[in-house]
Design goal:
binds protoporphyrin IX containing FE, three-stranded antiparallel beta sheet, mainly alpha, 2 domains, 8 helices, globular, 3 strands
């Protein structure tokens, strides 16, 4: 199955994955080289699980889960299989995030530090609560076979909006957390003196922003959207056009597909797949 601007897609995806891995490397290097490492002992090494797991889970894994439907080489997989992968990656991200919160609350309680006093903690907890809601509603609406298709269709714009909203909020929360930690966590110097640790961790913050920007770019390109099941079926049953070109997104005829679950129309004109409103 051909994809419009496939090379640009590949470049964006490869850059996002690279930047994501470099961010994970940066957070691990911060924790092991500049900080106390990782442990579960009620001390600072326990706190360190918090940035490691939020960056790996709530940011990196959530970003991958969000773009997984867009990978053209998965378009031949069944939609149900892709739903399991999308939901599974989000559940894994959720587990990482919950453990990261347990680590920071446990650290605060054992050091007698108050809980939930900062803007970072308020926005962060709100994001995690919304994420939980998104997961539960996502499973109930798109995985439970009994859910009526009109509900699936009606909920999809909200699902996409709230998914991206939570993802962006997670990134904003991480930036606040990083700044806070640099303000009160540097050992022998102050943030304003730009010690190597502060510069290094500022770069981590920039990498996280770049990762988020690319993921949101990928997932908001209409031409990179997974075609509806009907388009996929119609293409696989008519492999060649009369002019001898392989049928893909270069179709010149107009195809109108009715989505059986959403009851919406997917129109393909002049090689462009219009917003299909697909919900199955
Ligand atoms: C504390 C959430 C990322 C640094 C907290 C607390 C929450 C939270 C709810 C309050 C814990 C308590 O009061 O006992 C999140 C979420 C994140 C995230 C959802 C996802 C992106 C980060 C990152 C850092 C960080 C990347 C970088 C080091 C801190 C610090 C505290 C904290 C220093 C203790 C001070 C405070 O309560 O604000 N976080 N956090 N957080 N977090 Fe995060
Ligand atoms: C699509 C986010 C959980 C089912 C999407 C999209 C986002 C998103 C941003 C748009 C993707 C695109 O346009 O290519 C999230 C987040 C979740 C979550 C952040 C977890 C908190 C779930 C769950 C299910 C689900 C548990 C259940 C299977 C779907 C479906 C689509 C979708 C069916 C439409 C894909 C398409 O037709 O192209 N989700 N989602 N989501 N999500 Fe989720």
């Amino acid at each position: 199955m051909a994809m419009e601007n496939f090379k640009q897609f590949l470049f964006a995806l490869a850059t996002a994955v690279l930047v994501g891995f470099v961010s994970i490397f940066f957070v691990l290097r911060w924790v092991f080289y500049f900080k106390e490492g990782l442990a579960w002992d009620g001390g600072l090494a326990e706190f360190n699980w918090h940035p490691v797991l939020t960056v790996t889970g709530f940011i990196f894994l959530q970003g991958i889960a969000i773009v997984v439907y867009r990978l053209p080489w998965t378009w031949k997989c069944s939609k149900l299989m892709m739903k399991f992968i999308h939901a599974g990656l989000n559940i894994l991200a959720f587990v990482f995030t919950v453990v990261s919160l347990v680590a920071v609350f446990d650290f605060h309680n054992s050091q007698n530090i108050p809980n939930m006093y900062s803007l970072h903690s308020w926005v962060g907890l709100a994001a995690v609560i919304l994420y939980t809601l998104q997961l539960v509603l996502g499973v109930c609406i798109y995985l439970v076979p009994l859910t009526p298709t009109y509900l699936r269709a009606a909920f999809m714009p909200l699902h996409i909006y709230s998914g991206l909203f939570v993802f962006a909020t997670a990134i904003a929360t991480a930036l606040m957390g990083i700044t806070e930690k640099l303000i009160f966590g540097l050992k022998d110097s102050k943030y304003k003196d730009s010690p190597p640790e502060a510069t290094f961790v500022n770069v981590l913050g920039v990498l996280i922003v770049v990762y988020g920007a690319i993921i949101i770019w990928i997932v908001t390109r209409p031409s990179w959207k997974r075609p509806s099941e009907q388009v996929l079926v119609s293409l696989s049953t008519s492999p060649r056009e009369s002019d001898g070109t392989k049928v893909g997104f270069g179709l010149s005829q107009q195809t109108v597909c009715v989505d059986p679950e959403g009851g919406r129309e997917a129109r393909k004109r002049s090689g462009k797949l219009e917003d299909s409103g697909q919900v199955n």
